[in-house]
């Protein structure tokens, strides 16, 4: 090695600084510092679909002067804000004969639903799946808390948080689960521009939990590590119906803590041989490690576990074989609907948005509709599982 060769840590650090600067400039261009990121309005047709009513019924409510006043655009088209949709839900719920029709969240005896989204291999669509699920449940009237447990913080970035700029003084769930001087969970929760959706963002601080836990275990220091996420959630349990945890793509102490806190597990799978082989190793390790956690007193009982096929291409023969293989192996544990691979989803991601945020006009109609139908079908299945866990028929 020559004397003037660049050290790898210096090189990587320089690249990180350049990239961070460019990303900040990109964000400033998309969302100027003085601008507050907001969610688009929804057409009356979209709102009718969300509420499960006819568009004509919404028009009649408007003409009768009932409910929020929509924004009227060219051609008399009515647009509603997310706050308007929630106001409609509250109004319609008061007049319904079937409780929970328009506000489907928890009732007095229902437990908090904690859905942990995991995969051992990057690129499986884990964060995209978790983000679309969180946002759709929020649009459907559930009170949702999303927790970004991944130090890479992609979920946070999708919701307008750039960790190296917005979380300079902490603010991740690490602050609530650390061993020394933990912070109350309430102090870490941030509102998003989505009505009903709050977030605890992530950043590299989360890695500290991976480093500190072995020391705490060696010192037999207080409560076991796997109880800490669950204990933090208990502080805010009354405020939410559903918690979605986006885990890092590795099986460390963070992921095991999230699995111990979970009432349900969603495993994203890209249907290709290498990914399924990787998942096999992941499941073996998960089983072994969680067995140890269970033996140490961890609660390993779940309402449900499901595999969701992601980035699925219906015309791809080998993918179809892999999906059939998984269904034959795992049966009902594989969701009926896959998430399609779609340029609409990937293009939306370029501007740090999901399908629920982008304007339909930006895409070819058939591309957008196909992607939205796919993602709604998956989220609808999961919502049905949540309702079933509460002892109600799936929606």
Question: Can you walk me through this structure?
Answer:
The protein is of the alpha/beta class and 395 residues long. The chain has helices spanning 8-30, 44-51, 55-63, 82-94, 126-139, 154-158, 163-166, 174-177, 207-218, 228-234, 253-261, 273-295, 317-330, 343-350, 365-389; strands spanning 42-43, 71-73, 77-80, 113-118, 144-148, 190-191, 197-200, 242-246, 264-269, 304-309. Strands 6-7-5-8-4-9-10 form a 7-stranded mixed beta sheet, with helices on both faces.
Instruction: Summarize the main sheet.
Output: 7 strands, mixed
Beta-strand residue percentage: 5-15%
Helix content: 40-55%
Per the principal axes of the C-alpha atoms, what is the gross shape?
Answer: globular
The N- to C-terminal Cα distance equals: 64 Å
Helix vs. strand class? alpha/beta
Total helical segments: 15
Tally of DSSP β-strands: 10
Unreliable segments of 5+ consecutive residues: none
- Overall average residue pLDDT: 87
Order of helices and strands: HEHHEEHEHEHHHEEHHEHEHEHHH
Report strand order across the widest sheet. 6-7-5-8-4-9-10
Radius of gyration: 22 Å
């Amino acid at each position: 090695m020559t004397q003037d060769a660049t050290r790898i840590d210096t090189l990587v650090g320089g690249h990180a600084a350049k990239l961070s600067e460019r990303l900040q400039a990109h964000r400033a261009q998309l969302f100027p510092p003085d601008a507050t990121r907001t969610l688009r309005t929804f057409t009356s047709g979209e709102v009718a679909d969300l509420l499960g009513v006819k568009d004509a019924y919404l028009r009649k409510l408007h003409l009768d002067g009932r409910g929020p006043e929509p924004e009227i655009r060219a051609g008399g088209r009515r647009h509603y804000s997310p706050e308007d949709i929630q106001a409609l839900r509250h109004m319609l719920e008061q007049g319904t004969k079937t409780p929970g029709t328009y506000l489907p969240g928890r009732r007095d005896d229902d437990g908090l639903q904690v859905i942990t989204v995991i995969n051992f291999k990057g690129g499986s669509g884990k964060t995209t799946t978790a983000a679309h699920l969180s946002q759709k449940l929020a649009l459907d009237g559930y009170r949702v808390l999303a927790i970004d447990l991944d130090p890479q913080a992609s979920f946070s970035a999708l919701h307008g948080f750039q960790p190296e700029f917005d979380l300079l003084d902490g603010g991740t769930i690490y602050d609530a689960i650390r061993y020394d001087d933990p912070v109350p969970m309430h102090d870490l929760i941030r509102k998003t521009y989505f009505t009903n959706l709050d977030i605890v963002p992530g950043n590299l601080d989360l890695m500290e939990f991976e480093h500190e836990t072995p020391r705490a275990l060696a010192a037999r220091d207080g409560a076991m590590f796997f109880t800490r996420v669950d204990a933090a959630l208990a502080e805010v349990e009354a405020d939410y119906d559903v918690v979605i945890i986006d885990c890092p793509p590795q099986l460390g102490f963070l992921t095991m803590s999230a699995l111990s806190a979970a009432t349900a597990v969603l495993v994203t799978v890209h249907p290709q041989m290498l990914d399924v082989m990787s998942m096999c190793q992941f499941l073996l390790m998960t089983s072994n490690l969680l067995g140890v956690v269970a033996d140490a007193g961890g609660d390993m009982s779940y309402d449900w576990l499901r595999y969701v096929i992601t980035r699925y291409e219906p015309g791809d023969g080998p993918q179809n074989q892999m999906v059939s293989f998984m269904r034959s192996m795992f049966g009902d544990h594989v969701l009926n609907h896959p998430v399609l691979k779609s340029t609409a989803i990937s293009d939306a991601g370029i501007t740090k948005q999901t399908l629920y945020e982008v304007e339909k006009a930006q895409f070819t109609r058939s591309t957008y509709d196909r992607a939205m139908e796919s993602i709604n079908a998956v989220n609808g299945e999961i919502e049905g599982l949540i309702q079933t866990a509460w002892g109600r028929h799936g929606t």
